Amino acid sequence: VQLQASGGGLVRAGGSLRLSCAASGIISTSIARMGWYHQGSGKQRELVARITRGGSATYVDSAKGRFTISRDNAKNTVDLQMNSLKPEDSAVYYCWVYSTYDHVYWGQGTLVTVSS
To answer: Please, are residues 3 and 97 in contact by the beta-carbon 8 Å criterion?
Structure first.
């Protein structure tokens, strides 16, 4: 299984970025949840948002109202629209898949840098 993430970059505070991740090597019905984690410098990896196959989304408090996660089951993709970005959102963002057979997969990470 491979997770290919894209969309990171440098943006000014208040700007927007859209992260995308495509999962390959796994059938759609084997993907229970998809999501995004981030890891700031010197910090632990933390959940940003995740979404079930049925579209139920969960967000970390800091992302509520600013970020929107979406998923295309047919394409095995998950996107994260990030608006009103803040410098504290700067981190490496990792795509995440939790399978129906209790296995976790991680993408390679994409860097998001928000300048003040």
So the answer is: yes
